[in-house]
Amino acid sequence: MKTALMLVATIKRVFSGTGYGLIALLMVGVMEIHAATESTAVQQLARGEYLARVGNCLGCHTTKGGQPFAGGLRLTTSFGTFVTPNITPDDETGIGRWSQEDFWRAMHEGKSRDGRLLYPAFPYTDYTKVTREDADLIFAYLRSIPAVSQSNPPHEIRFPYNYRPLLYVWRALFFKQGIYEPDSTKSEEWNRGAYLVQGLGHCNACHTARNVLGASQDEHASEGQIMDSNWYAPSLTTRQEAGSMDWSIEEIVELLTVGVTQRAMMSGPMGTVVRQSLQYLTPEDARAMAVYLKSLPESDAPPEVRYPEMPEGVRKYLAQGEKLYEKHCQDCHGASGQGAPGIYPALAGNRSVTMAIPTNVIRIVLNGGYPPTTAANPQPYGMPPFQQIIRDEEVAQLVSFIRNAWGNRGSLVTPVDVGQSRGSRH
Amino acid sequence: MKYFILTGLFLFTCFAEAAEAPQPVDVPNTLAERVKACTICHGEEDKASRDAYYPRIAGKLEGYLYNQLRHFRDGRRYYQPMAILLENMSDTYLREIAQYFAGLEIPYPPPESIVIPPAQAALAEKLVYSGDPEREVPACSACHGQDLMGTEPFVPGLLGLHSTYLAAQLGGWHSGGLIRGKIANCMADIAKQLTYEEINALAKWLAAQPASGEPANALPAEMAQRCANLALENGDSR
């Protein structure tokens, strides 16, 4: 661009006042058109990069500390281990030989360049909703990144799932091909949010209960065990979990893009999604997502559990937990579990603490963690890991206590529950 | 009477509300507060018994600490609790945390009292100050400084650490057990030349020395060349 301007200046100097003025003007015109095309191309690449961020391609197609988009990440599932492919434009090991059409078929139809069916570890069940225009922009961006020569090992999928034709059956049952169709009764903003959440954002990949065949079971984002991790993805349609029907749009936006609000905090794999993807959302897209998430219909509320009067034995068990709380937790989370909003989360009334499935709260006590660093929260406060400090029995007492203190009510946690949460990679 | 009851109710409501909404915990806006998740293990107090494994990080070189934080985060040095803590931290924040710990001036505790047989001590001292040129093992002091307090900006000091930690690190470099020995690195090449007997002797001898002195300013030219990848490792990986 700068070179182009300098050339224009030179041409102007050479031709000015020599009778070639008209030609000079024409040339300037041509160059300006050229410059305009160039800047459109730059804008389109930036748009493609943005969409790749929203789809969080990097999240799976990059190993820890590895070359961006070169794949190689191992995703352990109950069907075996999937190894993500290299999607840099390298001819031999990446997608250098792919055409725009090939890429579209992968995103929209879940088929590889050679026509083979892709395993739904690649979330084409969501990406199918992405428009052709957006898919083409992402492809153009992926063509523009540095090619990395990196061959990744093959998948290690267990019998019988390694028999690819079975995917025909799976797809007949669970895959509905087709781009997102706007709901004309809803606002443009709502539709934009739905498009992002259901399509590129592929929120359903985690926030939906998967059946035994690994298929997301719900049109609307619900709940499930997250692939390759020992975290539980809370339901987005349940008030008792991560439903946002009671939240203000502003607070949902804040949680998605900052990672922390007055009452909630993104942890585990969701913290990583904020770091890698959501923090880059434009204010308009973040708002659209929030509008859609808030509007999700509430799933049937779980039957209210009537807790009987606590037997003496249980009270003693919880009292042990209370002692541990006073020693290890109270300094930050407060004597009444009130916390410090936006810094140390309150535990009283905290849904991550009281959720029916206690996996996440146990993991947080064992491993600690920091919310993601984001532009608006560049120096987050952290939670220490306690796995080296207290034993499984003590973690069970402690978690049982915070699930039943200050008005909280939840099932008791056993050392076996704690043991099951240890040892996972994430 | 009516007013009395109403006032009573009003007061009761106030108290009830006060009881329901306790004051938020007062949290200092400092880096020291933010790194409490680190200091639970790397704290000031003497943890020589149960938690001997956790190395002292106070006063270590900033460049060294920054590199280690990023290695843990990016999987080039493996320790699961560290990897989970650092997973979602930016380079900028890791640099600030490294600066914070590098700037801490906390007196070193007295060295471990370990009985080292004279032959073992002699073996360690020879490796520390002379190395073994035949196996291309340089003296520890060539890189880690004459005082063994490290060399700016990336080479760590070797004193003030527990023998368990030292033995584990040398063993890791030696066998690749901590991933470290599996990546191209001059320390891995050197440690692979050492025997377990030598690793044990070094870990014990180093842990028994009092920590004093200053880091060296720069590596000798030969070692700077041999360990050039230290600078490469400092490149941004994401």
From TrEMBL, chain A:
The keyword Metal-binding applies. Pfam families: Cytochrom_C. Heme c 2 binds at residues 203, 206-207. Binds 3 heme c groups covalently per subunit. Its cofactor is heme c. It comes from Nitrosomonas nitrosa. This is Cytochrome c, mono-and diheme variants. PANTHER family: BLL4482 PROTEIN, BLL4482 PROTEIN-RELATED. Heme c 1 binds at residues 57, 60-61. One of its GO terms (molecular function) is oxidoreductase activity, acting on CH-OH group of donors.
UniProtKB/TrEMBL annotation, chain B:
One of its GO terms (molecular function) is heme binding. Heme c 2 binds at residues 140, 143-144, 187. Gene3D superfamilies: Cytochrome c-like domain. Residues 119-210 form the Cytochrome c domain. Heme c 1 binds at residues 38, 41-42, 82. Keywords: Heme, Iron, Metal-binding, Signal. One of its GO terms (cellular component) is periplasmic space. Residues 1-18 form the signal peptide. Binds 2 heme c groups covalently per subunit. This is Cytochrome c553. It comes from Nitrosomonas nitrosa.
